[in-house]
Amino acid sequence: MPLERLTIIGAGLLGGSIGLAAQACGLAKRVAALVRRPESVADCQSLGIADEVTLDPAAAVGNADLVVLCTPISGMTGLAKRILPHIKPGTVLTDVGSTKRQLVAELTPLCAETGAHFVGSHPMAGSEQTGPAAARADLFDKAACVVTPTDGTNADALATVSAFWTSLGSRPVEMSPALHDRLVARCSHLPHLLASALAGSVLDSAHGKQQVQLCSTGFRDMTRLAIGSPVMWRDIVGSNREDILTAIDEFAKELGQLRRLIAGDSPEAIEAWLQHAKVMRDNWGGSVAND
Hints:
9 strands; 6-phosphogluconate dehydrogenase C-terminal fold
């Protein structure tokens, strides 16, 4: 799906990786990136993230065939309002946001008013690292990418977005915005919050210095996600509150069952519980990318 011009709004880990991947596979004749800070222009240019890096929204999106919003969720609607007056009719917009229901509801009519088309998407790929220096051209290889059309989504725009993610190496999976938010609350949002809770609980200074000295590989791996951006995750929690609360309640129920098994001092029951979890994890195999 050759594009004349692809524009990335925000060139951090995901936006920067899109730029690198798009250039590596020849997806667009020209890749442009819009950034917020003057120092980011030089950073992105030195890393080869885009052919053009600018602070000017009009220059970034003018004549773009596809625009990808790669900023924190809380700022996407306001940003869309800024760039839409400069976008030609028929331009397709998509995003990389970790929640979809609120964003799709807000951006779909905004884009339609200007003759553009919005199709929500969320690549299930990422890292606790941030910034353009963390970007990788292979970040999306074999990763699932959720695409969230609605009943009113333009068919050609949907095809463009699906082909875009396929070209970057990912596997598009279509589902409704509501289903997406419910599922990622369990498999993406809950793990991050649990990692943060575990880090906060275990590393509490009330436990003394020796507690920290004993934290090793297992603790490091379990809490890796807690390193992620608090601002980004604040926005995710705020835009998917009810589904996250449900996921927490489900997990609390499972943890309560484990507590009862341990309190009951039944080695056989505890082993069965652990074996069940091991089998499910082994069968899954970790075939999708990190998020």
